Amino acid sequence: MDAGDLWGVGVSSLEDLLKDRHGKDIQVCSIGPAGEKLALTACIMNDKERAAGRSGLGAVMGSKKLKAVVVKGKLKVPMHDEARMRD
Question: Fewer C-beta neighbours within 10 Å, C or N terminus of the chain?
Fold first, then answer.
């Protein structure tokens, strides 16, 4: 979907806007102004303030004009040994 109206919005405000548009039960990975400006330190952000990498991955999204990825679902992720994982 076109996100031209979201360009320039910070990640916390962006997540709030996207939850208003798509529902409260979504997860968001997005970039802020640093990613849009292709800063070498730009991160991909989720849960408003959680950063995924500090190696410029946000700049990669910015270079592709990708502001955010929104996902929604209820499928369970299969595990080889769930009991061991819980331990």
Answer: C
Token pair recorded at residue 83: 């009991």
What size, in residues, is the chain? 87
pTM higher than the cut 0.85: no
**Structural contact between residues 72 and 23, judged by C-beta atoms closer than 8 angstroms:** yes
pLDDT digits (tens, 9 = 90+) for 60-83: 999 999 999 999 998 888 899 999
**Residue 54 banded pLDDT, cuts 50, 70, 90:** confident
List the one residue out of 32, 56, 58, 54 whose CA is nearest residue 44. 58
The Cβ of residue 26 has, within 10 Å, a number of other Cβ atoms equal to 14
53: tokens are: 């990498």
Please give the torsion angle defined by the CA atoms of residues 8, 13, 19 and 21, in that order, rounded to the nearest 10 degrees.
-50
Q: Which residue has the tokens 């408003």?
A: 48
